[in-house]
Amino acid sequence: MLKRQNPSTPEHRRDLAADGGALSMSHNDSRSFFSLSQLVLSAGRIKPSPALKHSKITYFEVEIVDVQSKKQICIVDKVPPASTLLDVKHKFHKACPQWYPSRVGLQLEHNGPFLKDSVSIQSLAVSSIVTLYFTDLGQQVGWTTFFLTEYTGPLLIYLLFYVRLSTIYDQVESRKSFRHPVVHLACFCHCLHYIRHLLETLFVHKFSEGHTPLKNMIKGCAFYWGFTSWIAYYINHPRYTPPSFGHKQVSYAALAFLEIEPVFQVQPTTPSRGSSCWYPVPTIHMRLGLGLVSQ
Question: What span, in angstroms and rounded, lies between the C-alpha atoms of 103 and 98?
């Protein structure tokens, strides 16, 4: 027969003590792991400490680097935190007079977009030194200058053909020929069209403070001035013949011109620098519909 072990024996007490110690250690480990997990969860995502507190910075230093050669052009020092990129461009212009502010394009990264003039330096800085990449945008003109030049040319060019300069037409033939009334009407409508555009450019339309490359103005003027020269040469030529359908064609075309002319559309454009702006687009007028070219 098996003898029942007496619980009070020394061997039995040692076994109980060992089992109780193991249980207490396991319970303590579980409690420590639970506390550690609660601490990690309460802390959330670990956020990197800011590189620099801007509130302690009195001035920034802006390093201007050429985007092509990666060479330093100059350092604009003592830039207040509240300064904008336009302020930096003005200080850069004082250091390098050959680059005026509208010609300067600044990027935060080598292949990044051009920064707007309204961007504050403090929003770009991660340290007391801000590095910006410089790009020469070429010669620039304002939008008001752009449209005034574009509209003034056709007005003056047409009048030069209207008076029949001796350098353009034969004077003997010009004196003998009779001008049809539609020629005078065409001159009136053409001048009215561009005078209205000039007045609206000066007093009605508001353009952005941005600029556009000079080559864009040259291309626009080449189109407007060239097209005006082409139609003005034939309309004011001494051998010009009146419209094929007579006064009825002229009357309908004049009414259509007066109806369409007040319509003036405005559409947005986004220059390469990324700042969007609005500019007026000339409406389709009825110069050819006036019967200015005989059939």
Answer: 9
